[in-house]
Each structure stands twice: as structure tokens, then as C-alpha cells.
């Protein structure tokens, strides 16, 4: 097995114009900046740098082949993971619902409401809700609540002639409708922030149906 | 053949950014989390296997990593960094396993199991250089291979590796240098 002895190190340095393989590897890690003429002008260093780069390229191929093999596994490892995390839902606060019975208490979890809002957003082509917050005291009936949504908008989901504003208006309406239908929250506002905008030059298709 | 219990349903989420998926998963979206598992799980499996030295415990380590990630996602500030964050969790869990194994066996493993052959195996002519290199990597002494994978797959700095493995930085540099030397020699042999 190879051992770094002082002598072999000295030999290496004399062969590589005073540098070691480690120096050269660090140089590559730094992206060869700032440039070092004592390395760049040395033929021996240039050869060594080429070898190191060939090694890096070869190992990248090794790594990506290994990752590809793992990605092709069909033994259900993903399902096992998902099944185990599904047991740990993010409930959040309790959002009360009025009940006909004076002795029964009924409530939705905040997590469930956020889930429904996400689904409402996903129902609109071109919209993906990333973050969703219910601001205000949802546990207190009648308290004004502001819904804050961070969304990603892809213009491929827009109907012909539709703007980002139109698309988010559709989202706002859908979110409002689902909240009125499923909860008793008093919605003060639905604030939407577009955090990502994907502009694709989609060809106009016949699917651009005129809704509303 | 095992039955495929879940088929990936193509959805807009498959093409979504890590940042968006991490935000949604932090809000409790299991589907977004599943996309992250499919996207980064394979790399984490490779990482764990290399640190552990075999794939016997890979399933467990990767599953534990994702459960931890699911619980801690709401504390991740920058969703765009979810990949390296997952790799850190996975690296740490793998190292914990190795430590537990070592405590149990009560042996010092430093350089204990240098493989008998570091020179190319008798490989069929059709085998790719990459295969030989992969084997060479797999057969590096444990501590060298661990440093190497933390550096190359985990994208750790030398200092981070030193901290994670509880070694002096100089030792980490030395281990990486030896690993590099061995791999370079393997590459030359396949010229």
C-alpha cells in the first residue's frame, strides 16, 4: 500500500516543479483561479492536471451510473418511505366547525385546510402553490383570516390572452370558494405572491377554451 | 418478482423546482415529498452504501434519513438547498451506523482492512474502465472511502469531513490523498 513518506513527497515535488498532487488537486478545486504560472507553465504539472481531470470525469461517470442503477430499483423502497411518513401528518391548529349537537365538538385541522387549498391550486393549469399560510386566530370563530399563498406560475397554463393577473384571479376565486364551502372561516383577504414565473413560448392550441 | 405497489403518476410536480417541492413538503404535502425522494433518494442510497461499505443497511439509513427530513423540513430555511441538506442528514446517519458498529465490535478500523489487491482484478476484456474504477473505489480502505464519498458526493469541505468523522484535518487530507493516488493508478492501468 502506498504511504506518503517524506522522500516520496520530495520526489513528487521535484518532479512537479515544487508542487504536490494535492496542490494541483486544490488548484482544480479552485477552478484554477487565481491562475498560478508556476503550475500552468510546468509541462509536468500540466500532465498531472490532465490526469486528475481524467480521473474526475471517469469518477463522475461511475457515480452517475451508480445513481442510475439505484433509480431503476423497483423493490418499493420509495413506497416504504412514503408509507412511514404518511403516519406523521402536519396537523397544525384546530379550526372549529359549528355542530348541531351541543355536546359534540367538531374541528378541521389547519393541515387539512392547507391541503385542500393546495389541491384547489393544482386544479388550475399553470399554478403550483408552494407555501400556504392562514394568518389570524383560526381557532376563534369569526376572527378575520388572511390566506397567504406563494405560487409558481407557468404561462403554459394560461388561456389565450390571459395574464398572470387573470390566472391568479382564477386561483383567488377557487381558494375563496373552497374555503366558503369547507370551512366557517371569515376570510379577510387572499394574498398571492408569485415567487416563480415560468415563461414558456407555448404554441397556441385549440385547447385554449373560453371558460367563464 | 415483487409487485410494484405504487406507480408514479406523472404530474406537474415532477418538473417542479426543489425549492417549491421543499416548501410544499414542509406544509405537509406528501406528493411533493415523494418527488423529492425519487429525485434525490438514489444519490443518497449511493452515498450511504459507500460510507457503510455495503448495502446491507442502506434501506434503513435512507429511510431514517427521509423520516428525519420530513420532520425537520419546516425548519429548513432555504428550500433550494434541500439536496445538500438531505445529503448531510444521510451522511450523518450513515456515520452513526458505522460508529455504532465499531463500538459494538470494539475494534479500531483505521487501515485495518486494506484489501488484498488494489491492482486491477482479472476483469473480462469487455468490462468498462468505469467498472474497474467503481470496484477500486469500493475496495478502498474504509476510512479513505468514507472521506472520499463525503467529499465527492456529500460535497463537504475538508473541515466538515474532519468534524463529521472526528479526525484532524491533516488526517483527512492524507486519507483523501491516498485514495486519489490509488484511483489515479487504477486509471493509468486502464489507459
From TrEMBL, chain B:
SUPFAM superfamilies: Sigma2 domain of RNA polymerase sigma factors, Sigma3 and sigma4 domains of RNA polymerase sigma factors. Gene3D superfamilies: 1.10.1740.10, Winged helix-like DNA-binding domain superfamily/Winged helix DNA-binding domain. The keyword Transcription regulation applies. It comes from the Bacteria. InterPro entries: RNA_pol_sigma-70-like, RNA_pol_sigma-70_dom, RNA_pol_sigma70_ECF_CS, RNA_pol_sigma70_r2, RNA_pol_sigma70_r4_t2, RNA_pol_sigma_r2, RNA_pol_sigma_r3/r4-like, WH-like_DNA-bd_sf. Residues 36-102 form the RNA polymerase sigma-70 region domain. Residues 131-183 form the RNA polymerase sigma factor 70 region 4 type domain. The keyword Transcription regulation applies. Keywords: DNA-binding, Sigma factor, Transcription, Transcription regulation. It holds the Pfam family Sigma70_r2. Belongs to the sigma-70 factor family. ECF subfamily. This is RNA polymerase sigma factor. It comes from Cryobacterium breve.
Amino acid at each position: 500500500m502506498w504511504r506518503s513518506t517524506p522522500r516520496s513527497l520530495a520526489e513528487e515535488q521535484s518532479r512537479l516543479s515544487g508542487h504536490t498532487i494535492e496542490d494541483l488537486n486544490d488548484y482544480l478545486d479552485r477552478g484554477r483561479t487565481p491562475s498560478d504560472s508556476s503550475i500552468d507553465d510546468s509541462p509536468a504539472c500540466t500532465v498531472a492536471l490532465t490526469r486528475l481531470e481524467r480521473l474526475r470525469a471517469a469518477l463522475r461517470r461511475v457515480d452517475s451510473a451508480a445513481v442510475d442503477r439505484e433509480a431503476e430499483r423497483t423493490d418499493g423502497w420509495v413506497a416504504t418511505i412514503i408509507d412511514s411518513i404518511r403516519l406523521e401528518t402536519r396537523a397544525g391548529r384546530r379550526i372549529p366547525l359549528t355542530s348541531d349537537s351541543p355536546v359534540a365538538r367538531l374541528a378541521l385541522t389547519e393541515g387539512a385546510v392547507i391541503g385542500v387549498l393546495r389541491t384547489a391550486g393544482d386544479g388550475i393549469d399553470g399554478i403550483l402553490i408552494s407555501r400556504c399560510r392562514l394568518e389570524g386566530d383560526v381557532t376563534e370563530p369569526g376572527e378575520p383570516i388572511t390566506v397567504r399563498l406563494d405560487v409558481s406560475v407557468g404561462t403554459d397554463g394560461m388561456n389565450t390572452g390571459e395574464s398572470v393577473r387573470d390566472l391568479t384571479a382564477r386561483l383567488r376565486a377557487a381558494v375563496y370558494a373552497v374555503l366558503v364551502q369547507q370551512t366557517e372561516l371569515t376570510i379577510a383577504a387572499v394574498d398571492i405572491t408569485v415567487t416563480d414565473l415560468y415563461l414558456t413560448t407555448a404554441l397556441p392550441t385549440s385547447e385554449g377554451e373560453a371558460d367563464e | 418478482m415483487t409487485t410494484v405497489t405504487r406507480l408514479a403518476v406523472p404530474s406537474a410536480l415532477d418538473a417542479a423546482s426543489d425549492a417549491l417541492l421543499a416548501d410544499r413538503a414542509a406544509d405537509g404535502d406528501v406528493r411533493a415529498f415523494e418527488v423529492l425522494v425519487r429525485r434525490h433518494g438514489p444519490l443518497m442510497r449511493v452515498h450511504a452504501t459507500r460510507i457503510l461499505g455495503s448495502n446491507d443497511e442502506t434501506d434503513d439509513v435512507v429511510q431514517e434519513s427521509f423520516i428525519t427530513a420530513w420532520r425537520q423540513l419546516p425548519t429548513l430555511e432555504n428550500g433550494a438547498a434541500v439536496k445538500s441538506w438531505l445529503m448531510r442528514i444521510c451522511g450523518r446517519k450513515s456515520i452513526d451506523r458505522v460508529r455504532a458498529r465499531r463500538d459494538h465490535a470494539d475494534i479500531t478500523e483505521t487501515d485495518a482492512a486494506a484489501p488484498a489487491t488494489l491492482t486491477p482484478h482479472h476483469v473480462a476484456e469487455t468490462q468498462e474502465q468505469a467498472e474497474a474504477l467503481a470496484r477500486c473505489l469500493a475496495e478502498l480502505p474504509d476510512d479513505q472511502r468514507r472521506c472520499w464519498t463525503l467529499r465527492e458526493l456529500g460535497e463537504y469541505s475538508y473541515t466538515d469531513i474532519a468534524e463529521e468523522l472526528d479526525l484532524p484535518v491533516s488526517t483527512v487530507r492524507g486519507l483523501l490523498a491516498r485514495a486519489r493516488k490509488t484511483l489515479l493508478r487504477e486509471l493509468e492501468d486502464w489507459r
